[in-house]
Amino acid sequence: MIALLANPYRFMAFSRWAAPILASVAILLIAWGLWLGVTAPPDYQQADTVRIMFVHVPAAWVSMMAYACLGGASFFSLIFRHALADAAARAVAPIGAMFTFMALVTGSLWGRPMWGAWWVWQDPRLVSVLVLFLLFIGYLALRASIDDEAKAARAAEILALVGLINLPIIKFSVTWWNSLHQGESVMRAGGSALAPEYLTPLLLVGAGYSAAFGALWLSRTRSEVWRRRAASLQLLAALS
Amino acid sequence: MRALILLFHRESSLAWGRGGGPLLAVGFFAAMTVMFPFAIGPAPERLSAVAGAVAWVGLALASLLSLERVFERDFDTGALDLLALGPLPLEVVCAVKALAQWIANGAPLAVAAPFTVMALGGRPDSAFLVAATAAIGGLAFAFVGGAGAALALASRRGGVLIALIVLPLLTPPVIFGGTAMSNFAFGLHWQTGFILLCAYTLAAMALTPFAMAGACRNALS
Hints:
The complex is a heterodimer of chains A (240) and B (221). With 240 residues, chain A is mainly α.
């Protein structure tokens, strides 16, 4: 798949169709999942606020997936010097930052009725998502503050890889630091702890968010490729 | 080996000598700990509860201060080009630079840290642990911070950018060291945090020279 799409022409031909298809799949899945989520019976402890889970938890999943994609694209760009991989890395960072921000905001909104506070430092996941957000911001800031595009790309790749190595350690350290949050409940040995009425919409919205992430990533990468083509055409026109 | 010793001598005397050397970091650290009681209030029990944490955050911030100078001066004067062409691999050069940064900043701060903790009312028997934690954590700050400084070389605004990209990466050592110190202060098990801090520092010393060298090559290209 990656080898096939490494060719920019094939990538452009593929993404031209794949992006709108993924976008429509995303809309369908998110709408279906949210409908199921809204019509699900209220939780016996959390009442209606449990529905925030359907927009919060998938955003947190996708934010981590986005950083993994950023790290992967940076790795390919750094090792193989592939221009498309760099365009993909540049394209994915703002999307990841956006999903991370969304996870933080919805988590905070959920925390207010649940824990009685907008922000609770005792929750390791909230804190590690905040650090993830700071990593995205650092990546974007580094990339934006270097004028030379090639240099900005390489420096940002190195930072993304350093962050990728650091991320599990941050996650571990924050969890070790303090753990008040409930443990893993979706994926764990012996089946999910979540009732199927909640698990189905959660997974649907999760798949929908992932499809939306894919559609956004593809179209942003496309526009990055177009932007580079326009820049080189401008250069050609200026030279001739 | 001779080149290595010469380089180390050059780097440490540069880091120690010019621009105030360790005075700047220690002065900042002292000023910061003086400001804390003003903000929190003079009650001894409140101050002694946060003594270790204040010292530890102060260390992290103070060691960020002079990171900009680790590579920038050599980059501007062209010395970094010569070092990159020299017989030593750039990875080793970067590791020596980070080590010199630690000698001029981390080590003096580690000496100053127990005094601050005492001044804020921390337990006197924690002095040795505070110094050891500060020294080992300072190594991690110097190496990870060096990677940030090398990455920011090609950018237009060094200082703030370095802080922005380095601080999230420093979360684990701050947590490990801070927990070790506060656990010791409350008479709890402090060894785990201390050992994890040592592990993080060793990993940072082993891996970040490659990031530093890659970033330097990129900035020089």
